[in-house]
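G., the chain you wanted modeled:
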Amino acid sequence: MRDVPVFDQVNMGDAGSVYDVFTLLGFLAGVTEHMALGTAAVVLPIRHPLMTAKAAASVDVLSGGRLLLGVASGDRPVEYPLLGLDFDSRGERFREAVHYIRQTWQPGGLPVNGKRVPTLDVLPRPVQPTIPLIVAGQARQDDGWLAANMDGRFVYPGSLEKLAAQTAAWSGATAGKGAFISAFHLDLLDDANSPPQLIRFGARLGRKALIGHFRRLAEIGVDHIAVNLRQSTRPLAEVIEELAADVMPQLGKKATTLAA
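Predicted structure as tokens:
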């Protein structure tokens, strides 16, 4: 799910997720049982961290511990003046929000003016020991801070060479403990032997080429792929069935990380 409160037709031309991110996650928690629910990403500086912590914990409980909370500093300048917030200080506010949210999910009281007040609490608590925080982009932080404070990193799709460099840097900074995630915009063709035709952030191709590409991504250190079907020319049910029946089984253990 994406967190885009305002449709900026002139500067962005992309409405993102139309529905409020946490409302949609709550709905999906009620109509699904097994799939992970993720955000890419909640813009922390435009939300009070206490309310973000409560909303995320609520989704985690309602889904049985399936939330992956992608977070970012935001790249849409129009949102900040609309909310009376400073755009240039969003990096500092991002760091403060991450610290506050992590404290709020732990027992011991809420942080008030730098001190924890044991008589204050936010309910519910997450089902997971802590909800994984995954940074989308750079969030105006250096790599060292991200490696120390994030559980994973989500990057835009890129070439194999670029992704290999990014995965190596992330693995080195986190001693191999941080998950590396990217996305792939897919138009899966009927002909399994169709060669790749590049489209923005992905390709139009048959399943054999798709399996080969996913295997190469795994080899260079990509842990998870979010498959975006927005540009699909086939019925979505057919594509999802083919991914489940003919693509994921060919990926071995990595198949469990494939999301559509």
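The longest strand covers residues 179-188.

Shout if anything looks off.
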